[in-house]
Amino acid sequence: IKLENAIQALNAQVQLDSCVGTLSPQFCDGIVRGPGGAVIAFANQLTNIGKIETEGFDWTFTLSTPEFSFGSLRFTWANTYLAGYKEFTFGENGLVPRELAGIELGSPIRGYVRYKSTLATDWQKGDFVTSLTLRYLSALDAACTANSRAQNLCSDPARNVDVMDERVYADLQVAWSPTLWDQAVQFALGINNILDEDPPPCRACDLNNYDGTLYPVPGRYIHARAAIKF
Predict the structure, then answer these.
(1) What is the pTM of this model?
(2) For residue 134, is pLDDT > 80?
């Protein structure tokens, strides 16, 4: 997938480097300095950043068993592998590529997980369907912050990388569609994150120390649902 003329705010470091290299108002005007000359903010509004190139693979396997005395089973295994995600921004010497696959930016909060996998198992017995879903996200690399280095929290200070470990989430749901009403009515009760898995710490993130665009809110989530077909 290639996206030309992509629109996005410039990365703060790219903007700073481009200002130093070119002294162009296009880059320098958006850098806000305090009375002592220190950079205190970036007014990096949306602009045409150049282009985005991404490639990857998706594959899904599905297996359904015949009806046994204990019921029937259905397995669905869906996978996505992000082979590359290059973002091109304008720099001192034209378009500058940046590889983001496997990277957590943190500010703005965006993570590009290389490998995602979901395994869903459905067990149907009579009017009941029990579903167990396992969701896997591979590890991400985030930049070490000055704070994390000062407190010796950076997992790989030699590479200036703070590794956000892989995670597996498990969800469970039981649904009942009574034949009494021709299965037009369904009741469901479920628990998301039954293992109470916390998201990996994201010390580079702007808010709440985790990436809410990728990982669920910490804790278990219980939900109930009633549906009717007309």
Answers:
(1) 0.77
(2) yes
